[in-house]
Amino acid sequence: MEIIQMLCPSSKWSLKAPYAMAPQGITIHNTANDASAKNEVSYMITNSSSTSFHYAVDDVRAVQGIPLDRNAWHAGDGRNGFGNRYTIGIEICYSKSGGDRFHTAERNAAELTARLMLQYGWGLDTIGTKVINTHQYRSGKYCPHRTLDEGIERFWNMVREEYGKLSGTSVPTPTPTPTPNPSDSYLVRVTTGALNIRAGAGTQYPITGQIRDKGTYTIVETQGNWGKLKSGAGWICLDYTSKSGESNPQPQPSQPTPQGHYVGETVTINGVYTTSQSTKKLTPAVKTGTITKIVNGAKNPYLLNNGNIGWVNDNCIVGGNSTPAPQPSVPASFSKGQRVTLKTSAQKYCTGQNIPNSIKGKQYTIMQVGSGNTHPDGVLLKEIMSWVYKSDVQ
Ligand SMILES: [Zn+2]
User: Fold this and answer.
1) Which residues have their alpha-adjacent CB atom under 5 A from ion ligand 1?
2) For the whole model, what pTM was predicted?
3) Does the 2-167 domain belong in CATH 3.40.80.10?
4) Radius of gyration (Cα) for the chain, nearest Å?
5) Where are the alpha helices (DSSP H) in the chain?
6) Residue 106 CA, ligand 1 centroid: distance in Å
7) Are 201 and 223 in contact (CB under 8 A)?
8) Residue numbers of the chain with a pLDDT score lower than 50
9) Which overall architecture, per CATH, does domain 182-243 show?
10) What confidence tens digit (pLDDT) does each residue in 347-360 have?
11) In the chain, what are the domain boundaries?
C-alpha cells in the first residue's frame, strides 16, 4: 500500500486541527460514500466545515490530510473528548457500495492501523479497548457502518494479521510434518548458558522457553541448523549445541544472542522493562535506543542507553540495524527497511511543510523509496509517516 500526504494547510488548522496532539489511540470510520481517498481528503481540506480526519484509505493508498501531532474532529465525542483530542481518525473509503474495492480498502486500513500501533507502542491487547476502537465506541454513531455490518471482529483480525506481519511475530500456519522416524533421533549437548526454544525452526518464530542447564537433549527432526526437541517444547538452534558423545566439542567462537542483536545497535522498540528480569511491559516514552549491554539469559537481556531507557527483550524490538558495522559513508541509493538519520540541516518535507526540529537528528526506517509520480526525490520514513528528501537523510 502506498501512503501519501495531502496535508491541510496550517492556515486552516484553527478550523480543522486546532489543538496539538500526542496520539493515544485510533478511531476507525467508514466514509459512507464512494469517493476515493484522494478525493475524500481533497474535499476535507478545502471545505468550510470543521469535520476532519487524519487518513482516508482506499483500495490503492492511504492519504494523510492532518499531521499526526494535531487533533482532528471526527469522533463526535465533543471538544474535549478522548476520540477527538487524542486519537488518529482513519476513514475507510467506498463503504456506500461495498464490494471488492471496499474490502481491499479495509485491508489497507488494517495495515495502516497496525503500522501506527507499532509506531506508538500500542500492543495487540489494545484492540477493541479505548485505545483502538470505532467511532461507534467513541460516541454511539453507527460508524464504521459497513465494517460493523460485516463484523467488527473480522476487521480487528485483519489488524492482528497485519501487525503480526509487520512485527515478525506472526505464527505461520504450521505445515503438517510426517511423524519423525525414531532412527533419525540424536542427542545434543547444549553449549550455551541460555538457549531459546522457539515455536518453529527459525528466529522468526516466537520464543516459547529457554534451556539454561547446558544439558543433553534428544532431537527428533532437523531443518537446516535447527532441531526439534523430543519433548515437544519446540525448536532450538543447533549452532549452540554439540553432538553428544563428541569428545572435543567445537568451541563456540562467540556468544551472540539468539536474535543477533549486539552492543552498539540502535533499535526501535514497542515496549520496555524497568529491570532485566521484570515481567511488566511498559509503554516506552522514547521509541528508539542503543543497546549498551547484553545479559544473556535474562528475561529482558538488552540494556538501552545505559539504563536511561530501560531493558528490552526480543519481543520489544520491532526494528534494528541490519548490519553490525554501521555505514559511515552516505549510501548512493536507499532501500526499503534501511535505517537512516534525518540530517539536522533538513528544512522541509517533500510536501513543503516545515520539519520540526524535534524530529531531526534521529534515526528512522525507510518504509518506501519514492519513484515515478510518488516523490521520486524522497523517501517515506516509517516512524513519522512522512516523505523527506533523499538529500536530507544519511
Ligand atoms: Zn465515523
Assistant:
1) 29, 135, 143
2) 0.48
3) yes
4) 24
5) 13-16, 37-46, 82-86, 100-120, 135-139, 145-150, 152-167
6) 14
7) yes
8) 171-181, 246-258, 322-331
9) Roll (2.30)
10) 888 877 778 777 88
11) 2-167, 182-243, 266-319, 339-392
